[in-house]
Amino acid sequence: MALPAQLRPIQHYLRTAQEHEKRDPVVTYYCRLYAMQTGMKLDSKTPECRKFLVKLMDQLESMKKELSDNESITQEVVGNAHIENYALKLFMYADNEDRGERFHKNMIKSFYTSSLLLDVLSVFGELSEENIQHRKYARWKATYIHNCLKNGETPQPGPAAMEGDEEAGQAFSHGGPASEIGFAPGPGPVPMDPPTTNYNNIQIPPGAHAPANSPAELPHPSEAAKPVPAPRSVPTVDHTLLNAQQQGGVHLTPEDFTRAQKFCKYAGSALQYEDVGTAIQNLQKALKLLTTGKE
């Protein structure tokens, strides 16, 4: 069924969903959920839009039944961790390629897809400030590198010398790079925030533990060996937490338990990619929260 013109802003999320149907159905589910929620806000009354959105709802219901034994679908905190981990894995890959001055179509697409998945995270609640910055940076980088290559220029790696160039940041909203490098079947606006930040001040992780291949090209985890991790520093373990007991008078709210659970899920996701440093950091955050009531 053709996408009505009024719903064109959601086309890139639907395309991302389609691309991941076999590779990662969890990504597909939440991309469609985000597209459906956004589409409802755009136009849920026009007959063609209503018909399209009802069909999308039916797809979501069908997927929910098929994936009823998948914790990433049945438990929001696990789904949140899954999408965030995947988005940041894409970001780290693209950032690593960028800093290594390896500029190519797949790294541009990885930056942009990462920004879309960070949008999708909003189905779970407000984005963290860190993810908002990652999203802006990823969109800016995708546009900047695409335009450089298109114009025969050599992009500058890393976040330096990016301030003030807002034209590139808005290019995707006109469908140019997005349609040219395969994000969408045709031109159309992309919802995005034009960069208003001095990117020299944004703390972008160095991407030292990015996998050797883009996740966009990796087979399903059950079919492939884990990527070989690059050397990374492991944070110092806080030994005071090893024998931690809950301090007297500490009252934990349901939100505290949810946050602690989220930290543990993040740690579990990190271990899937043999990222020991991130696992330790999140487990220490969970322990501190449970013993002191503070992050």
Which properties best describe this structure?
mainly alpha, 295 residues
Protein architecture, described:
The protein has 295 residues and is mainly alpha-helical. Helices cover 54% and strands 0% of the residues. The chain is built from eleven helices and no strands. It has helices spanning 11-19, 25-42, 47-66, 71-74, 76-99, 105-120, 129-150, 166-170, 176-180, 254-272, 276-292. α1 (11-19) runs antiparallel to α2 and α10 runs antiparallel to α11. The N and C termini lie far apart (48 Å). Belongs to the VTA1 family. It comes from Nothobranchius furzeri.
Provide a compact summary of the structure.
With 295 residues, the chain is mainly alpha-helical. It has 11 helices and no strands.
Fold topology:
Layout lengths: L10 H9 L5 H18 L4 H20 L4 H4 L1 H24 L5 H16 L8 H22 L15 H5 L5 H5 L73 H19 L3 H17 L3
Helix pairs in contact: 1-2, 2-3, 5-6, 5-10, 6-7, 10-11
Net shape: globular
What's the rounded overall pLDDT mean?
Answer: 76
Number of strands: 0
Q: Beta fraction of the residues? A: under 5%
What is the helical fraction, as a range of percent?
40-55%
- Any low-confidence stretches, pLDDT <50, length ≥5? 161-177, 179-234
Structural class designation: mainly alpha
Number of helices in the DSSP assignment? 11
Task: Give the SSE string.
Answer: HHHHHHHHHHH
Distance between the termini: 48 Å
Q: Which radius of gyration do the C-alpha atoms yield? A: 20 Å
Largest sheet: none
